[in-house]
């Protein structure tokens, strides 16, 4: 139960750093902007000093500003804060039931966040490949997670879960704040449609299972995100309860903030600066979404004839380009694709946001373009479905309607993967569709009215959407562990939990079984030491490292060395490997014994034992300088 204190610490500290921003921004804008400002300042200073020092100096500065503002009596926290608090409490409760940082790619996310927390300078060390840097992956989203961890004063395995709960809270507050002028019912409906809704597939699958007597099980929870063949089709609620601290998840609140800033009627130099900051952090977090957000901002600038908005969009490319130069990612390949989303699959995923736009934003002229959809169907079924809405968005931009700019960016996000892809169509659909979901739900809500027949349409869309949270949440969170400790599951694996806690206080290269036995072992227990300590392993998650670095020889050589280390009887051979990679700590726990049948006696002959508990051992080498 005590781990809940850390969630309270984050809530209080994050609210305090918001106070100086309330003078220049609305509450729903200031809440996330304060975190992005703190994270960006810590990031920039982190190239010269250790990350924790850069963070605490930046945090101290904001706290002093906050105390000064409070002293001056210029503090007014709006009632909108209740939305943040309610959503944050809900997701904290879910993570309190099942806090495990284990399945899917959570080890990777935890490893990157821990590597940032231990970074002496940026870029951080690659936790899965000792001696290399984390410059192949856009890690700013994990830096935001690290910032939330430090704001909560928690250990990383708790801070991860606090960060996971904070993201939907920031998202919901931002959407609510930008819609509240249309009334409480519309604002709350917009939040539920964008954040707390499932797709049409999940609605139909639920009743199919009920009427056929099939269980609402993990298949129900998962299948609605694999609707379009050979692609991934997440929507925000699934991403939030799935709880990977991935780039596309951290990007969700940033996207909504950009929408809120461009939808603002009164703009000042502070708003323009915030747009530049938000666009940069979006690029640094998940570059896939940057061009789509750029379309939204440029279109909004064109719609309201605001040259400064256009200038800000273009200016954001400068820091984005500098960030890109410091990365060492493999060159992105742009592809012309032949595959198309089938019409029935697309509707099963996108019915709710598309229907919301048709019903709530359509103009008389919209339906003039329906005949054009017939020939376009043979080019792309998705384009055919969305052509009348494209015309609506363009007409709206001509008529100076900001919501149309947001809708246009969402429509292009749906259409583009039918023609072009970056790296693969699977990932392009994955990243673009979740942006489209947000853009269309929010733009439709900006035109929604709670009157006459439209309120019944909104209720119907809410009913379709709410089935998934109602049915899938108990499936995803079926345990009651009553802690936010994401490492608690490790207590079942010999003494690994306590050994990793011991190593969290240490620094240096480790050797462990991190995934040397097959392409999918990266999704299992291997690599857990690097994941929860941030200490770089000789090799972990080999399949991912190969995908990131495209260097099979490097990855294969290290995997072979790890296998040799744990299976050889020769102290000389083990010492050669230790010296080769500068290993300081040797981990012998559940996974090493399971995979290699390694026994501690052999290691005790060659190295000094510094930790033993529950059948897990840590040995040190001579590389302790």
Automatic annotation (TrEMBL):
Which UniProt keywords are present, listed alphabetically?
A: Membrane, Transmembrane, Transmembrane helix
Do you know which InterPro entries this protein is assigned to?
DUF2298 (IPR018746)
Q: Which organism is it from?
A: Archaeoglobus fulgidus
Q: Does the keyword Transmembrane apply?
A: yes
UniProt keyword annotation of Membrane present = yes
Q: Which residues cross the membrane?
A: 6-25, 32-49, 55-71, 83-102, 158-179, 186-204, 245-263, 270-288, 308-325, 346-362, 374-398, 428-444, 456-477
Report the domain of life of the source organism: Archaea
**NCBIfam families, per the entry:** Chlor_Arch_YYY (TIGR03662)
What this protein is called in its record is DUF2079 domain-containing protein
The protein's matches in Pfam families, at most eight in alphabetical order, are given as: DUF2298
